[in-house]
Amino acid sequence: MQNTTKKLKKAIVLGGGGSKGSYQIGAWKALRELQIDYDIVTGTSIGSFNGVLMVQDDFERALDLWMGIDIDKVIINGLNLRTDFNYYRDHSDKLLPFLKSYADNKGMDITPLKRLLSEYIHEDKFFKSHINYGLVSVKFPSMKPCQKAKDTIQHDSLKDWILASCSCFPAFPIYKIGDDGYIDGGYYDNLPINFAFMLGAEQIIAIALNPNPHEYSNHPLVRCIQPKESLGSMLDFDNATISENITLGYLDTMKSFGKIRGNNFSFYDLDMKQYNDAFIRTLSKILHDEATTHYEASSFELLQKIVNISNNTPIHNRILELLTSSLKLPDGFINTLSLLPRTTYLENFVLALIESQMYYFEFDVLQIHTIPNVLQDIWQKSRDFLHNQNITSLSNDITDREFLSVILCYFMESL
């Protein structure tokens, strides 16, 4: 019998979040570079709009749209929420038109958004695409969820349903389709993974616009891509913020697929064995010099500090064995070690040490760095820092930054 492998049906799920939707354009750029195809797209709010562009395969136009967008292309007399509200308090001439428009329209005047959708949404292209689609809205005032699949949307009502999904009431007005009112789909499901499964998805790439965990965060069929920190306000259309969020979406997606390393910073892929070995030698030296020969309460604190250099970055199993093999550790410390996951790669811990120094020396989080170049730079800066602080070795009375700088120098000497 012929051995054939059936392709799994893959879905892209796009969360809501207003102007933070630029993050999804960066993720889309990465997916294109990775040559990842998809069969289904579901979205809520701004995710429903970006999703239509993905179904249309209009990446270049989507990128141009987001790189050139501003608040006036979304609402009339809008307030850019990046601006300090003290500014509007002191410049009432800028605030009053917004308040009048808001009162007249029972929400912000979204006439520019309607024009924007007319410019970028092409029904013929959308409905001819082989890619399935679904969006989420909520009927108001019943608050009944409304999930619209591609085959239930009439040709001439696509834009209406996107506006219904994007109507973030009370900021935006209730959107009417026929006799029914609709508000933002985020009131029901801001990341419509369930809907994607309902449409037949077997694998899902979910692109959320906030760092919060959700019910599918650890699901085996769902790859979750989301920012480490908040992307800002949903109505922050500052060009620099938009560009930054596009870059973050790209980097986070490439990291998710293992093409770029790092947590808060980004590194080109590299064989980490020499760095892993150097870090083992570093810990061995520290534990030998500072723990085994002077074991007391303060040494216990020192060991805890070594283990917890980076929050949520557990030590690899070999390192746990190294820490415990030659020491008579108190039960409490052994229990602490046993709680740490034992499958995390040592290289994550090495990168966490490097990133801690990059943070202190204010490296660019939007740049992709090379580890050898970064190490040479931070080694020199760390030595200068320790020299200025008159720090020559580890001790319990130095700051966390000084402690990490000493470890970094030990690490570099072990390479």
Automatic annotation (TrEMBL):
Motif (GXSXG): 43-47
Family matches, as InterPro entries: Acyl_Trfase/lysoPLipase (IPR016035), NTE (IPR050301), PNPLA_dom (IPR002641)
PROSITE patterns the record matches: PNPLA
Motif window: GXGXXG: 16-21
Motif DGA/G, residue range(s) on this chain: 184-186
Record's keyword annotation contains Repeat: no
Keywords: Hydrolase, Lipid degradation, Lipid metabolism
Molecular function terms from GO: hydrolase activity
A matching Pfam family: Patatin
Gene3D superfamilies registered for this protein in UniProt: Cytosolic phospholipase A2 catalytic domain
Residue ranges of domain PNPLA in the record: 12-197
One GO-annotated biological process of the protein: lipid catabolic process
Domain of life: Bacteria
Keyword Hydrolase among record annotations: yes
Residues annotated as catalytic: 45, 184
CDD domains to which the protein is assigned, alphabetical: Pat_hypo_Ecoli_Z1214_like (cd07209)
Protein's name according to its UniProt entry: Patatin
